[in-house]
Design goal:
Layout lengths: L2 H15 L4 E5 L7 E4 L8 E5 L2 E2 L13 E3 L3 H16 L5 E11 L4 H7 L4 E5 L3 E5 L2 E6 L2 E4 L2 E6 L5 H7 L1 H19 L3 E15 L4 E12 L8 H8 L7 E2 L1 H12 L9 E5 L4 E5 L3 E5 L2 E10 L5 H10 L10
Antiparallel strand pairs: 1-2, 1-15, 3-4, 3-7, 5-6, 6-14, 6-18, 7-8, 8-17, 9-10, 9-16, 10-13, 11-13, 12-13, 15-16, 17-18
Helix pairs in contact: 1-6, 2-7
Length: 327
Amino acid sequence: MNQKLDKFREILNEWGKERKAFFFLIDFEKEAPFVCPLEELQKHLILLKMPNFRNYTPTKQGFINDFQIFPVTYEEYKKSFDFVQQQINYGNSYLVNLTFPAYINTDYTLEQIFYAASSPYKLFFKNKFVSFSPESFIKIADRKIYSFPMKGTIDASISDARKIILEDEKEKREHYTIVDLIRNDLSMVAEKVQVSRFRYIQEIKTSRKHLYQVSSEIQGDLPENWQENIGNILLTLLPAGSISGAPKEKTIEIIQQAEKDKRGYYTGIFGIFDGKNLDSAVNIRFIEERNNFKIYRSGGGITSQSNPKSEYNELIDKIYVPIDGNH
């Protein structure tokens, strides 16, 4: 455990005990955690939208439709895919979330993309990256902790898309695996953990196409003093199972070898504690600015049944800016 992470844990526990409202952000590798009082977001050049919080005035930003996408080649993707499948066949993992960066060409700034995107969770962080995440990490309210793992994506324009995604054996097994993993994770911090909703469909409208995504809801009971242990709870549950895999520890090693580049804040988490309840999101649908280039990171879960071409197409399908709805 590094000193930054220890300090981060202490601050979250202390501010939770004091019922002090704060914002938090943790990268995938847990090397650069960030926390600040909720009232200081603007000071730190942070724009944030949560289902029950925002610190900006929505605007009628134009439609983001001029993306040029330059993804990794299929050949390069296939090399990493084959390595991951080899590790699965060796028994080192049974689900690996494999991701890649894609260069995108657009005249829009990260801030303009933030305002244009429609998503339950949005974050613009210090001109470094923007995230418009559809996926909650955990919510805590009235001593109940909830997680909403999201696994399974399909183009909604396909005939019988809902039926196809719900009946696909590979997608079923991948979703079962993640639900089981998250249930076990929550059991480390909560009691009476149960799956309260299983494999329900969410529709996402994007600048390129409409997608269906499959989610489940898992919940458990926390002790009365859970606020004093916010840091412990979050760090026990990280990284999120849906963007790592199972079993976690070995799978993270496989990810590091397959992807080569660190993820940074991509697939980390961000959220707020408002002094009473906590809400957080997985940092996906993510664009970062690096050396004057915009990079969009995306990926998906790989199992022994995965087809490389289908997984490659899913990676590209997830390169989008969600549109419509409440900005």
